[in-house]
Amino acid sequence: MAAEIERRFLLANDDWRAHVTHVEHFRDGLIARFGGGKLRVRQALDRAWITVKGERVGIARSEFEYEIPIADAEEMLATLCQGPVVEKARHSVPYGGLTWSIDVHEGALAGIVFAEVELSAIDEAVAMPPWAGREITHDPDYKKEALIRRALEVSRHPTDPRAHGRVATALE
User: Fold this and answer.
1) CATH no. for residue 59?
2) Which residues, other chains included, contact 135 with Cβ-Cβ below 8 Å and sequence gap of 6+?
3) Domain residues for 55?
4) What's the confidence (pLDDT) of residue 66?
5) Which one of 48, 102, 121, 153 has the fewest CB atoms closer than 10 angstroms to its CB?
6) Does the CA dihedral 110-152-168-54 come out positive or negative?
7) pLDDT value of position 169
């Protein structure tokens, strides 16, 4: 079975930027939720794919990806996705024998930046880079759905400081 094993972190500072080896831009959208899983479509500049993710158990979950034509992904993003399409630049940063992904969100989630690292085993040791902050792997406030809900709240109530405060709390 295909598996995704990952940990996610806030960032303590921007020192990671000096070590970026690759940047790729993505657009992705949620097509469906089921139980604790989801079906997502993602498009990069020159490729696109569908991802099916199962329910998370600790830091792992089943994950299956299938490449699809870019035109199909564009159509799905325009017509099938629930909520806004998420845009981000993913920066690859090697550290401690692993490649960390730093996702700098754009569009509806502009200003949100996370670090994640994919592991080959649940108990794999991770050398923590000095720019990694608090771990948020299990924090529901940092799930994409929660962040999108808060961003939508701000867009619906742009002059309400309470709405902005709830988004700011998610970014701390």
Assistant:
1) 2.40.320.10
2) 7, 8, 9
3) 3-171
4) 97
5) 121
6) negative
7) 39
